[in-house]
C-alpha cells in the first residue's frame, strides 16, 4: 500500500474543527450538569456540533484511506485538516445534513471529498475508500449507544441521555443510508469496482440524483414506515427506546414543546 509525504500544514487539524469540538464539549457539559438556563438550546447546540464533528470525520476517513491507497492529492486539497469548508461541496456535506436533522430528525449522508480514483490501483482499495466514511458513522453509533447496551445509565441525567439517544439515531440512519447500493452513495461506491464496464456506464448518469431518489422513496408512507421500523428495531436491540429518541428530537427542537416528554422520567 502506497503512503504519501505531505507538508505538515496539510495534516494540521483546522481551528474550525477544533472550535466545533469545543462547542460540542461545552454544550455537552451544560446538558449534563443542567447549567444552561435553556436546556433545549444546549441540547440543540450539543447534538448539532457533535453531528458536524461526525460528518467531518466521515469525510476524513474517505480522504485518509485514499491517501494510503495512492491518492497523494488529498493533503493539498485540505481534506486531512478536518476543515469542513475545504470539502468540494460544503453545502452537501454540512449545511444540508444539519437542515435535515432540524426538519426531520434524520441523518442525511453528506459527502463531498474528491478522490482522484485514477491514482488508485486495486478494486479492494476503491471499495475500502467508499466504505471508510459510513464505517465512521457505525463507530459513532457504537460509542453513542454504549451506555445503553452496557447498562451504564445510572447517574446519567435525563436530558443528556435522550440527547445521546437522538444522536445515536442520526448515526444509525446515516450509516444505513450511506450503505445503500444506490449510485451516488457510498454503498454503490463499495460495489462499483466489481461491476462490469457496461453496467457502470449505464448507471453513471443516475449518480447525481441518487440521494434525491432515496429521499423521494422515503416520502412514500409505506417505505418510510419500513425504514424507520428497521431503525427502531436496531436501536431497541442496542437498548434505546423509541421514547428516548422521540423525546431527544423534541428537546432538540427546543422551540416547540411536547407534554409527553416534559413529564417523562
Overall SS class: mainly alpha
The count of helical stretches stands at 12
Which series of helices and strands comes N to C? HHHHHHHHHHHH
Main sheet summary: none
What share of residues are in beta strands? Answer: under 5%
Backbone CA Rg? 19 Å
Instruction: Classify the helix fraction into a percent range.
Output: 55-70%
Count of beta strands:
0
The rounded distance between the terminal residues' Cα atoms is 52 Å
Write a concise synopsis of the structure shown.
With 265 residues, this protein is mainly α. It has helices at residues 8-11, 15-33, 39-67, 90-104, 123-149, 158-178, 186-191, 197-203, 210-218, 221-237, 242-252, 259-263.
What report would you give on this structure?
- The protein is mainly α and 265 residues long.
- It is globular and about 55 Å long.
- The mean pLDDT is 87.
- It contains twelve helices and no strands.
- It starts with 7 loop residues before the first helix and ends with a helix.
- The chain crosses the membrane at residues 16-35, 42-61, 90-115, 127-150, 162-185, 206-228.
- Its cofactor is Zn(2+).
- It is a multi-pass membrane protein.
Index terms:
single chain, 265 residues, mainly alpha, peptidase activity, cell membrane, hydrolase
Give me the secondary-structure topology:
Blueprint: H1 8-11, H2 15-33, H3 39-67, H4 90-104, H5 123-149, H6 158-178, H7 186-191, H8 197-203, H9 210-218, H10 221-237, H11 242-252, H12 259-263
GO molecular function: peptidase activity
Subcellular location: Cell membrane
Membrane topology: Multi-pass membrane protein
Amino acid at each position: 500500500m502506497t503512503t504519501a509525504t505531505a507538508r505538515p500544514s496539510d495534516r494540521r487539524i483546522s481551528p474550525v474543527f477544533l472550535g466545533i469540538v469545543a462547542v460540542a464539549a461545552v454544550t455537552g457539559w451544560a446538558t449534563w450538569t443542567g447549567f444552561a438556563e435553556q436546556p433545549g438550546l444546549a441540547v440543540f447546540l450539543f447534538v448539532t456540533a457533535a453531528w458536524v464533528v461526525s460528518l467531518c470525520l466521515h469525510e476524513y476517513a474517505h480522504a485518509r484511506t485514499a491517501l494510503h491507497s495512492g491518492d497523494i492529492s488529498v493533503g493539498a486539497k485540505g481534506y486531512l485538516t478536518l476543515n469542513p469548508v475545504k470539502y468540494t461541496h460544503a453545502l452537501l456535506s454540512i449545511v444540508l445534513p444539519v437542515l435535515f436533522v432540524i426538519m426531520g430528525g434524520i441523518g442525511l449522508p453528506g459527502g463531498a471529498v474528491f478522490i482522484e480514483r485514477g491514482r488508485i490501483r486495486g478494486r479492494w482499495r476503491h471499495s475500502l475508500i467508499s466504505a471508510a466514511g459510513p464505517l465512521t458513522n457505525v463507530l459513532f453509533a457504537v460509542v453513542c449507544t454504549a451506555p445503553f447496551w452496557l447498562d451504564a445509565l445510572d447517574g446519567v441525567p435525563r436530558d443528556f441521555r435522550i440527547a445521546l439517544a437522538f444522536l445515536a439515531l442520526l448515526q444509525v440512519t446515516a450509516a444505513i443510508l450511506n450503505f445503500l447500493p444506490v449510485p451516488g452513495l457510498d454503498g454503490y461506491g463499495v460495489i462499483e469496482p466489481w461491476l462490469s464496464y457496461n453496467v457502470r456506464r449505464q448507471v453513471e448518469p443516475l449518480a447525481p440524483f441518487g440521494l434525491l431518489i432515496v429521499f423521494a422513496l422515503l416520502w412514500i408512507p409505506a417505505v418510510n414506515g419500513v425504514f424507520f421500523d428497521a431503525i427502531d428495531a436496531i436501536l431497541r436491540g442496542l437498548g434505546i427506546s423509541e421514547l428516548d429518541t422521540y423525546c431527544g428530537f423534541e428537546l432538540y427542537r427546543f422551540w416547540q414543546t411536547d407534554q409527553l416528554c416534559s413529564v417523562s422520567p
